[in-house]
Amino acid sequence: MKPPSQAQCPASDVRVAWLLPTMRGGYYWQPLFREFAKLFPNTVVFTGEWPGFMPGYEGMLKVKLLSGFRYVTLKRSATGANIGFQWPTSSIIWHLRRFRPAVLFTSAFSLWTACALVYRALTQSRVIVLLDGISDTTTYMNSLLRLSIRRMMGRFIDAAVCNSGPGCDYLRDVVGIPNSKILHRTFYVPDVTTLLSGTRVLTTSQATSHPNFLFIGEIIKRKGWNYLLEAVSLLVRNGFEAFSVTVVGDGEEKDMLMDRILSLGLKEIVNVVGPVPYDQLGTYFETADVFVLPTLEDTWGMVVSEAMAFGKAVLCSQFAGARELVKDGMNGYIFNPLDPPELAGYMERFLREPNLIAKFGTNSQNIIALHTPDSAAEILGTLV
């Protein structure tokens, strides 16, 4: 059984499958899916976890939730990142054979991608791999077994798209995918309208001192929140108090965060909001002045592009793939989160030179302007 050739049918008839093991917290995909489904209406997302459609996105495309998904954690890295694998449901191949897609988009080199390649061998469909980026934990340079499996997969992948330049280098130099099959394009793209589409409520961040530094992310070790607090504490000890920090998010280290704020005497400076629905995050981006991502490891970092879309100056960790969106000294600064004095120095620069905030924010907006859901959909559509 073979899927119909793309050359034999118009875009409206081409069957496209997206195999994404988990969409938990992945609301930022939905604007891209909406635009992609306009180009290829016969699209289905197959996933093991789906958070539901955001208001206004219901019915934009079909989603098939597959039971049996789980993430198997083998250990944790020094940065707190989980190391393991995403267990696929045994019914993936069966569901794909029922749908008969001509093209499959998959995420990185999971077992789900292996299933897509098995389906490719049975049907001569095309498999396109999407890679967020890379980090020390995700390259598996010290695992000959996992590298061998990736190199084997790379021989049969029809195309690969990666947000980051280093990720493209990894696909070519380590995995062995020919450069002609690799596309360096940002597919994690922000949508301001979606981030502001929820109920607008008066937030505590609107009553804080300015400049206001904003952190949005999980409260876990890997996100580097502790180093941000150390930098803030350094500023306060140096006599700077006319500023504030807003923390949006939740996680297993929430209690540790609260205790650390109290022990450092930062209760009047740092405001912890807690979890906020995705479609209300825009309110926090709007009221902030500078966005800070102190992550110890992130293959990309969607929040950086979202902050830029709202015209914010950005302080970005050197360990985030999205650092390539930050032009040092133009729309923000790249720093080592393990060096709190360095981060404190950059924050102090905004305190001493507040005119930089608007200047950098405008530059951020100009840089990110071409990275939109419709442009990303069109780029991915050229690979179908």
The biggest sheet, with number of strands, parallel, antiparallel or mixed sense and barrel status, is: 7 strands, parallel
The helix/strand class is alpha/beta
User: Beta-strand percentage?
Assistant: 15-25%
CATH superfamily of the largest domain: Glycogen Phosphorylase B
Total strands: the figure is 15
So what's the overall shape? globular
Strand arrangement in the largest pleated sheet: 3-2-1-6-7-8-9
Percentage of residues in helical conformation: 25-40%
- Kindly identify the CATH topology of the largest domain: Rossmann fold
Q: What is the number of independent domains?
A: 2
Could you characterize the architecture of this molecule?
With 384 residues, this protein is α/β, with parallel strands linked by helices. It has two domains: 6-184, Rossmann fold (3-Layer(aba) Sandwich); 193-368, 3-Layer(aba) Sandwich (Rossmann fold), CATH 3.40.50.2000. It is 35% helix and 19% strand. The protein has 14 helices and 15 strands. Strand 8 (159-162), helix 6 and strand 9 form a beta-alpha-beta unit. Helix 11 (302-309) packs across helix 13. The radius of gyration is 22 Å and the shape is globular.
Protein traits:
384 residues; alpha/beta; Rossmann fold; 2 domains; 6-stranded parallel beta sheet
Question: What's the topology here?
Answer:
Layout: E1 16-20, H1 29-39, E2 43-47, E3 62-65, E4 70-76, E5 82-87, H2 92-99, E6 103-107, H3 111-123, E7 126-131, H4 136-139, H5 144-154, E8 159-162, H6 165-175, E9 182-184, H7 192-195, E10 212-216, H8 225-237, E11 244-248, H9 254-263, E12 270-274, H10 281-287, E13 290-293, H11 302-309, E14 313-317, E15 332-335, H12 340-352, H13 355-368, H14 373-381
Parallel strand pairs: 1-2, 1-6, 2-3, 6-7, 7-8, 8-9, 10-11, 10-13, 11-12, 13-14, 14-15
Antiparallel strand pairs: 4-5
